[in-house]
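// run 5 | inverse folding | seed 20
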């Protein structure tokens, strides 16, 4: 009888282990990314899960002989001798002199597009997205989502170091957390339910259990926008924290998280940052400005006519980021005290001016990436605000349980993972930073 002990025997080496095997015989696994035939020998570039490794085939290295079935995009095991060489910049690197190639699978037909260059040359975005199962094999395309992994990992690590508990909340819900028309309706065994716009209700409930909570998960917005910044499904990085002194505690926590994320990327994702030629921002501190003051700057400094006095237009976000860069040398700026009319029913109004809320957005390189603020924790205050907006209080009984039986001062935020990735990497379209985008036109692959 076989027994399983949970120990995986590792046969192949990883590219970053080659130095330890110099002049030794190793086996690596991957795909044949590119074959360059030269006079008397060939360069064979192997694509592994994170790197590319240069191998050299020449008849003099062994008795193995190349054949016509070994082509680009085969998955293979290559055995050979590790030798040192130098790249074009004079840096030491390691390559493999091929002694044997074991073909694990062979493509049925040639690739419809070229993926074995550093980037996808002249491939329209729509084609890129339609052919995602293969375009993501391109080194630059896959590097995008390793960076995105690092962002989510940094967010998780920082919050857990600060005594947050990771939670999992439902995506099928009884009511929309944000309200409005941008909510997907579902027929749930004859009942009308919705896809969640936010884990907001559950985050607040769980503040009463764990005090500090976070989640990284999908949210859904039924917005009919076909723009470069909107998706109908995206990943929201949320946290909520209790016993705060003010909503500035939330902004400080996010600033700390962003610092941690950027340092983690520089330390452990440097090869992806270099490949993508990322201009990394520096954060020592992030400037803060009130919404009303920001609007005054837009009018007086940039001479723009205001058409929406309750929110920012995309151009105004860009102008405020331009202002932050020139005045404070910061790629980020917090805008606080948004009008109550534009904030959800759970946002706490400013006691000094109830037309505005104790809330904020974080703008980064021309775009809002975070919305957050302090929430109402008093039961009577929350019920009153819901009634003032014509909401049926009885529909929110389970949510209001949190308030009715004692809720601490608390607040939190939602940070869009794709938008942060997009602006960090300098893309013009959020779909470039989305592995499998869902928008008003696309539900495949």
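// decoded
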């Amino acid at each position: 009888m076989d027994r399983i002990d949970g120990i995986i025997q590792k046969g192949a080496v990883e590219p970053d282990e080659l130095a330890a095997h110099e002049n030794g015989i190793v086996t690596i696994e991957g795909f044949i990314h590119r074959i360059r035939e030269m006079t008397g020998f060939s360069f064979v570039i192997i694509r592994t899960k994170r790197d590319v490794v240069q191998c050299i085939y020449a008849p003099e290295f062994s008795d193995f002989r190349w054949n016509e079935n070994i082509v680009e995009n085969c998955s293979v095991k290559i055995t050979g001798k590790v030798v040192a060489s130098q790249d074009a910049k004079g840096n030491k690197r390691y390559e493999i002199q091929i002694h044997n190639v074991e073909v694990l699978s062979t493509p049925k037909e040639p690739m419809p597009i070229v993926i074995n260059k550093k980037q996808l040359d002249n491939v329209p975005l729509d084609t890129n997205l339609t052919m995602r199962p293969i375009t993501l094999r391109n080194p630059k395309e896959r590097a995008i989502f390793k960076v995105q992994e690092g962002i989510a990992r940094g967010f998780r690590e920082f919050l857990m170091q600060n005594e947050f508990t990771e939670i999992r909340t439902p995506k099928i819900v009884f009511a929309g957390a944000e309200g409005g028309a941008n909510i997907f309706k579902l027929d749930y065994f004859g009942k009308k339910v919705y896809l969640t716009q936010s884990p907001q209700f559950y985050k607040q409930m769980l503040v009463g259990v764990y005090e500090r909570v976070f989640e990284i998960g999908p949210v859904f917005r039924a917005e009919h926008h076909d723009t470069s910044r909107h998706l109908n499904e995206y990943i929201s990085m949320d946290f909520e924290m209790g016993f705060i002194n003010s909503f500035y505690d939330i902004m400080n926590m996010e600033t700390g998280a962003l610092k941690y994320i950027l340092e983690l990327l520089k330390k452990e994702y440097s090869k992806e940052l270099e490949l993508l030629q990322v201009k990394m921002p520096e954060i020592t501190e992030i400037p803060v400005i009130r919404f009303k003051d920001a609007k005054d700057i837009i009018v007086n400094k940039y001479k723009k006519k205001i058409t929406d006095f309750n929110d920012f237009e995309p151009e105004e976000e860009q102008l405020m980021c331009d202002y932050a860069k020139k005045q404070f040398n910061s790629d980020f700026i917090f805008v606080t005290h948004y009008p109550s009319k534009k904030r959800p029913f759970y946002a706490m109004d400013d006691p000094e001016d109830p037309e505005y809320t104790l809330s904020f957005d974080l703008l980064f390189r021309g775009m809002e990436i975070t919305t957050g603020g302090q929430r109402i924790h008093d039961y009577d205050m929350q019920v009153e605000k819901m009634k003032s907006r014509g909401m049926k209080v009885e529909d929110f009984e389970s949510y209001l349980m949190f308030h009715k039986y004692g809720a601490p001062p608390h607040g939190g935020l939602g940070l869009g993972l794709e938008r942060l990735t997009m602006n960090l990497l300098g893309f013009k379209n959020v779909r470039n930073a989305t592995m499998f985008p869902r928008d008003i036109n696309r539900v495949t692959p």
